[in-house]
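Homework help board

Subject: predicted structure for assignment chain

Our instructor gave us this sequence and asked us to write out the predicted structure in token form, then describe one feature. I got the tokens but I'm not sure how to describe them. Can anyone check?
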Amino acid sequence: MQQQVEAKPHVLLVEDEPLVNLMMSEALAEAGFEVCAVANATEAMAHLVVDERFDVMFTDVHMPDMKGTDLARLAHRLQPGMRIVYTSGGVLSAADKLPDSTFVPKPYEPWQVCALLTRVVGRA
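My token output:
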């Protein structure tokens, strides 16, 4: 009898702060996610355009090469079913957010983000 293995949800983590990126990568992997961690929007787009499929993108809003909100709009065009979760130490206006996206203010605890992403991808 062959045992069916449930696929791990695939998350694209876009965070330009190296320590936060590492901390969240580890926390998400421990929480059962397959993680693709990148440091900026340019790296994220490289993964999106080669048709790597993601269930959710967790992106910082303020990055040096592109705003996370602009990245989310481009990503949504490439992968319309992918969920978007933004994070920032500042305020995110409703006009900047994509519909059905979620916002997590910084600072946050990694377990809070893991629990949120689990709910967002429908595994809770």
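Reply (TA_rk): Your tokens look well-formed. For the description, you could write something like this. The two ends are 28 Å apart (CA to CA). That's the kind of observation they're looking for.
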